[in-house]
Design brief:
- With about 290 residues, this protein is mostly helical.
- The chain has one domain.
- Helix 2 packs parallel to helix 8 and helix 10 runs antiparallel to helix 11.
- The longest helix is centred in the middle third of the chain and has 41 residues.
- The radius of gyration is 29 Å and the shape is rod-shaped.
- The model has no long low-confidence stretch (mean pLDDT about 75).
Length: about 290
């Protein structure tokens, strides 16, 4: 009877150990690849990230949004011209310099509107230059070291069936969580690029208001938002650098399961900080 119990226990332990090893094998491969792509993704300007999408957004902006912005600019210029005249003592006292002032402001407004995409891309080019230089400083690897399968397998055989069942359940939870974190990182990185394209598509309308004293706040806030989302890439890169340092400090020997949970905690922390970079960047540039 004792032999049957021993054989049954060995069979159950072998089944649980194989399950644990299967759940943990290549556990961090997908997340490692996704995190490794972040620095490249955030440092890529919109025009190079996806030329097809960029071309679509540019065509929509220039053929659909720009004419509307031109009408807005015409209204702004006419509105301001009327007020310039009325403000001078109801036409009783008119200085010729106000006409030159109005012509100069209108000329600048037209130039800004005509070069909307150059201005927007210039902002992202500056941000990319900063990110590229920061990338040269943040050189630590973000890859989580693979588990020592032989050492882990040997240590698992020393545990009881109850402990192995608990570890198997933990390995299932960790596997599901890492898959979810991979999706979250994908949403953060690619969602930022989609937000950039959406922001870029409507660029002519807020820039058309820049020259107006009363409505210029719209254009100013747009530029702040543009700077915020462009320099969010630097904050994301800083998060990656901190994560890389923390990951490399994890000991991979002694308690492999504890190391897995510690790595999982750091990865969850990374996702949380990546989510915060957007609001933090907007608060820095006072964009809303």
């Amino acid at each position: 009877m004792g032999i049957i119990i021993d054989v049954l226990e060995a069979w159950i332990k072998n089944l649980l150990i194989n399950g644990i090893m299967g759940n943990l094998y290549g556990l961090f491969d997908t997340v490692n690849a996704r995190i490794g792509e972040i620095a490249t993704q955030v440092g890529t300007p919109p025009a190079a990230w996806n030329p097809g999408v960029f071309s679509l957004i540019r065509n929509l902006s220039e053929t659909v949004v720009l004419p509307i912005a031109g009408l807005i600019l015409t209204f702004m210029a006419t509105y301001e011209f009327i007020h310039l005249i009325i403000d001078q003592n109801n036409l009783n006292q008119i200085d010729t310099w106000i006409f030159f002032k109005w012509i100069f402001k209108t000329f600048i407004a037209v130039m800004i509107l005509s070069n909307t995409f150059n201005i927007v891309m210039g902002v992202f080019d500056v941000a990319q230059s900063v990110v590229n230089r920061a990338g040269g400083i943040i050189t630590s690897s973000t890859a989580v070291a693979p588990l020592d399968a032989a050492s882990l397998d040997g240590s698992l055989w020393t545990l009881g069936v109850g402990q192995l069942f608990g570890l198997w359940f933990q390995s299932v939870i960790v596997g599901i969580t890492m898959t979810a974190l991979n999706i979250v990182i994908f949403i953060i990185v690619y969602g930022r690029m989609i937000e950039i394209f959406l922001l870029t598509s409507l660029a002519p309308i807020p820039l058309a208001t820049l020259s107006n004293r009363e409505f210029g706040g719209m254009g100013q806030n747009y530029l702040k938002s543009l700077l915020a989302i462009a320099f969010q890439a630097l904050l994301i890169l800083v998060c990656i650098g901190i994560y890389a340092v923390l990951i490399q400090s994890i000991a991979t020997s002694g308690d492999p399961i504890g190391s897995i949970w510690e790595t999982l905690g750091y990865t969850v922390l990374l996702c949380f900080t990546l989510f915060k970079t957007g609001s933090l960047s907007k608060s820095i540039f006072h964009a809303h």
